[in-house]
Amino acid sequence: MLLIRCPYCNAERPEVEFVYAGEAHIVRPVDPSQTDDDQWRDHLYVRNNARGLHFERWRHIHGCARFFNALRDTVSDKFVTTYKAGLPRPRIEDIKESM
Amino acid sequence: MTQARYPLSGDKIILTGEHPVTIDGLDDCARFSLRIAPSQSAAASAALGLDLPVEIGGIASSTGRLALCLGPDEWFVLAAKADGAAIVSAFAEIYGQAPHSLVDVSHRETGIVIDGPLSALVLQSGIAFDLAAMPVGTGCRTLLDKAQIILMRETANRFRIEVWHSFSEHIWNFLAAVRREPEFNI
């Protein structure tokens, strides 16, 4: 079973305590009524579907219940890092240097 | 009309011999789910009469009341059944200065204590993280088998489980079954 580090609990917890919650850093348009149909469709549905490193939201639903962000490799399923919701997207180059 | 139901209260499994384990359905008590901004937790600490733990997993207890930090702004409060009304009125008084949510969930859950040298081994059958690494005097929300529980480690060999009533019989039967495994050297 995968262990996922919860940035709020500061602990490695089993994956069954977590749920996936889609791609991270999706910015909602400030004024949705000003967007045209294509922009609104892109905001709602169009996602990266990355092969490799992917920024995504997870929720520690059976633990502290917080949403947080994670950088996961979609090929190897390895979690590279996790960080609290609201923090800026870390640069992948910085993470690779520290790995 | 809804009726309070305590399926496990008074139930007890006591096993003596080489692998003594006690599984005990606890009497009903007062339980609260407290949500308050961490910056205002001092007011809640004063109302409750104990210092709310700030680290997730931390437990503080005083004069029969216990608070477990479940999340950055979430605490689980346990007290004697007769003490529940006093907690509600104490928090009602601070609501104007420190807005919060205090929900009485006494009826929702039931308590089980599992005690004995092999209690960690029995629980480990259904818990996916390493219980040996769980410090005494901490707690967390987690999954036991498929049911969500709140787990507190009271001493090295004594754990308290808080589980929703609707899952409690499943958890009870699960514990009763897995505690036989050490007996049969499985």
UniProtKB/TrEMBL annotation, chain A:
Pfam families: SoxD (PF04267). Signal peptide: none annotated. InterPro entries: SoxD, SoxD_sf. GO terms for molecular function: sarcosine oxidase activity. It comes from the Bacteria. One of its GO terms (biological process) is tetrahydrofolate metabolic process. Gene3D superfamilies: Folate-binding superfamily. This is Sarcosine oxidase subunit delta. It comes from Novosphingobium aerophilum. The lineage of its organism: Bacteria, Pseudomonadati, Pseudomonadota, Alphaproteobacteria, Sphingomonadales.
TrEMBL record, chain B:
This is Sarcosine oxidase. InterPro entries: SoxG (IPR007375), TrmE/GcvT-like (IPR027266). SUPFAM superfamilies: Folate-binding domain. Pfam families: SoxG.
